[in-house]
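User: I've been trying to design a sequence by hand for this structure and keep getting stuck. Would you show me what you'd pick, starting by listing the structure so we're on the same page?

Assistant: Good idea, let's start from the same input. This is the structure you sent:
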């Protein structure tokens, strides 16, 4: 990574640098708290540096992204504005795939891509720049190992999320099977089937049809299971998923049988874990409000917001400064996921303490703009950035 990394470096923000160094900043009787770890993770930083490098190395050649590089609308809009075209997702070129040829360069996003896409790119003879985060490769390797050893993967993840879709495609490619569970309620349905309490009809009624791999036969394919998780899930919940399924198989097979029928491998990434731990520490300081900044479709951001719910702090997942108004906030509600408006969100009390966190795909510049906006709305000038 060099100083020529224009896109990546353009996301630095001096106010956030100061907050990162000091942990909190006050102006008048308004104080802003930031956790010890938040925002851009190593994998995102690396992916953006690779995009910058590709722009230099392949200058003059058409540059494409399979889909969003990360789950942040602004970053993707910036990439589009810089001339990078998209094959899928918002702003995608309708005939993108048909236009690809040996002169084109295609970037694989940080959360990887389905095997079918990678094979198609190979057939087309394009140049591929693979920014897949090494933390995402970890569950990939583990599922392939499960397939080879005759285990069905139980994935704690989100259907439709690019990383989980890529993992599922890899399992299919290697001839294996999977079940995706998203919540503890779905895990309970699966566990009760394993324990013989529920039948196949009840199992299928309790999970979406696409949660099962094609041709899935529960009696046959759930004899031996290996658990993994999407890298950005709530770590505490992923552990609960693994523990519940272990108990179910213990009941079914007895403790001695577990070696033969159960595997569990923690694939939460370090950055996700660090951001969640730090968010827990910052909400433990009992702020009046907790704001989490990040794309509404960002899995790790959604989970950072849930940290505030568990602590009983009024918590709002917002996308940027435009979400905040003196009398209302536009945010993603939990667990439903609708984008809603809540009135009278900003307490009038003083002193006022507001804690923040930001997802792994949230640029510092965006967080800095939100912090500045908060000070403005609370009637206190934003502190100097240096
Ligand atoms: S959140 Fe984790 S897995 Fe995702 S890009 Fe960042 S480091 Fe990699």
């Amino acid at each position: 990574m060099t100083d020529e990394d224009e896109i990546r470096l353009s996301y630095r923000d001096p106010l956030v640098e100061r907050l990162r160094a000091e942990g909190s900043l006050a102006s008048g009787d308004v104080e802003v708290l930031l956790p010890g770890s938040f925002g851009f993770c190593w994998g995102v930083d690396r992916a953006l540096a690779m995009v910058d490098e590709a722009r230099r190395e392949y200058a003059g050649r058409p540059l494409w992204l399979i889909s969003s590089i990360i789950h942040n609308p602004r970053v993707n809009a910036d990439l589009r504005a810089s001339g990078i075209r998209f094959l899928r997702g918002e702003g995608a070129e309708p005939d993108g795939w048909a236009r690809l040829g040996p002169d084109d360069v295609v970037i694989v996003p940080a959360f990887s891509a389905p095997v079918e896409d990678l094979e198609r790119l190979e057939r087309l003879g394009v140049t591929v720049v693979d920014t897949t985060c090494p933390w995402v490769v970890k569950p990939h390797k583990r599922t392939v190992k499960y397939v080879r050893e005759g285990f069905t993967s139980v994935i704690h993840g989100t259907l439709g999320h690019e990383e989980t879709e890529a993992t599922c495609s890899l399992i299919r490619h290697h001839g294996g099977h999977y079940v995706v569970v998203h919540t503890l309620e779905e895990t309970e349905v699966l566990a009760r089937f394993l324990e013989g309490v529920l039948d196949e009809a009840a199992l299928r009624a309790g999970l979406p049809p696409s949660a099962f791999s094609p041709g899935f036969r529960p009696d046959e394919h759930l004899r031996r299971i290996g658990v993994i998780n999407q890298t950005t899930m709530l770590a505490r919940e992923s552990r609960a998923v693994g523990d519940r399924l272990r108990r179910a198989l213990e009941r079914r097979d007895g403790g001695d049988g577990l070696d033969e029928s159960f595997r569990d491998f923690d694939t939460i990434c370090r950055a996700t874990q660090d951001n969640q731990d730090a968010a827990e520490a910052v909400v433990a300081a009992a702020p009046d409000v907790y704001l989490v900044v990040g794309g509404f479709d960002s899995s790790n951001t959604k989970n950072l917001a849930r940290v505030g719910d568990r602590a009983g702090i009024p918590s709002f997942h917002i996308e940027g400064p435009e979400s905040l108004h003196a009398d209302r906030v536009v945010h993603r509600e939990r667990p439903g996921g609708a984008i809603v408006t809540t009135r009278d969100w900003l307490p009038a009390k003083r002193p006022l303490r507001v804690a923040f966190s930001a997802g792994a795909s949230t640029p510092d510049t965006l967080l800095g703009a939100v912090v500045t906006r908060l000070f403005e709305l609370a009637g206190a000038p934003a502190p100097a950035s240096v």
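That's my pick for every position. To get oriented when you compare it with your attempt: The pocket of iron/sulfur cluster is lined by residues 41-44, 110, 133, 135-136, 231-232, 269, 271-272, 300, 360 (CB under 6 Å). The domain at 135-264 is CATH 3.40.1010.20 (Cobalt-precorrin-4 Transmethylase; domain 1).
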